[in-house]
Amino acid sequence: MNKTAPIAVFDSGVGGLSVFREIQKLMPNENLIYFGDTARVPYGTRSAATIQKFVKSDLDFLSRFEPKLIVVACGTASCVGAPVLEKECEHFTSVISPSAIAAAKTTKTGRIGVISTAATLKSGAFEKKIKELLPTAQVFTKAAQMFVNVVENGWIEEDNEIANAVAKEYLKELKQQDIDTLILGCTHFPLLSAVIQKQMGEGVTLISSGYETALAAKMDLEALGLRNQSDAPGSRKCFVSDNVDSFCQLTSIFLDHQVAKEHVELVEVN
Which of 148, 186, 257, 266 is the most buried (most CB within 10 A)? Predict the structure, then answer.
């Protein structure tokens, strides 16, 4: 396979840009493609059959670029769409295993929390992987869908009243469980790290699904011998299935800049 082939990152919407950002930092010379299925977001409230159908069409679109690695920057697509990913992808990295591995390595008490979408948690993927790595672990979960809305409204500062009110409500049960490690299992959630840390306290280590997935992608490419050897900065291209203007506005929340409209292409998905 061509080492200069792109890494393709996809998500149900814009949250996967947190993974995209971390990949850019870790591998600035790699060519990157991002696809956000904004016409069908959110995946987290859909049935398994529907999610798998969406994942299949996402992969069909990305296949035209012949990527050397698919990065599934969506917890729901990673776990519920796993049968499709395993069938259709030669090489892929998803958010579940890297985050679970990091949590299992980090915890000292074996009491691990996970916050994500309802569909991701219902699949049991995080708990299953953590238990494989650390059989004695106790895993406590909480669906936190409203965090997505908080992030996309830009309410991510540590002192934001709305963000803190939502976080306090979502996290109170996990605080009572005396966890020492918390997986931010949706790629929107790392942007609320300061708010979540404030609510959980400094004794709880946060595991960023964005960073851990990007790091795993780097390690996977190195193991496959597919790292781009060029010293030149890699290319960047974004695609969405609905509303280019809205996507471009939201990119400033997830990246350190706003993506220009001319750098985003609207595509149709089946």
Answer: 186
